[in-house]
Amino acid sequence: MGKTRVLITLGCCVIAMASVAMAQGTPKPGLWESTTTMNFAQSPLPPGMTAPSGSPFSGAPRTMQVCVTQAQIDRFGGPNPLPSHGNCSATDVQKTLTGMTANLVCTGQMTGNGTVVIKWSDTGTGTSTVHFSGNMQMGQKSSPVEFTVHTDSVYKGADCGSVKPLNLPSGN
Asked: Would you state the pLDDT for residue 84?
């Protein structure tokens, strides 16, 4: 898998992870619209290479629909916060009436640590920030990476329509 494809996959997962913001004092299952911006302190892309247009790595705001299930809320306080590739786990998950915090630990192709901070309000909105620092392994080469993802979310309703939730990981 090429580095750009891995980055796009990671970016989509981070966007889903960052969109855990819920509302009304208690997380609500259903459809959320999330607008996310990803900023790099250190990009894993080689010098001179830019992210494809429309990629979460381009730095431009990206809006997507996220379906949150009750099982995700019960386990993580929102959608699955773990990237879909690699060996990542959420540790020290702390859920409160107005938010959630967790640490991310990743090993394998992507190694490093991160934090997730989520706040939701009684107005049907929420914000989240994910910060990750580590390395991305591509073949024999390892590239350092550090990024922050900020997401603003708005609750749209209980019916997710055609938007499918991400699967829950086993054992995390």
From this structure: 53
- Quote the CA–CA distance of 102 and 4 in Å, as a whole number: 27
Spans in the chain with pLDDT lower than 50: 1-24, 172
- CA–CA separation, 148 and 167 (whole Å): 24
pTM check: above 0.70: yes
Q: Report domain extents, the chain.
A: 3-40+61-157
DSSP string, 57-112: GGSS-EEEEEEE-HHHHHHHSSS--S-SSSEEEEEEEEEETTEEEEEEEEETTEEE
What DSSP string describes 110-146? EEEEEEEEEEEBTTSEEEEEEEEEEEEEETTEEEEEE
Task: State which amino acid sits at residue 88.
Answer: C
Question: What's the CA gap between 80 and 164, in Å, rounded?
Answer: 13
Whether 129 contacts 24, CB under 8 Å: no
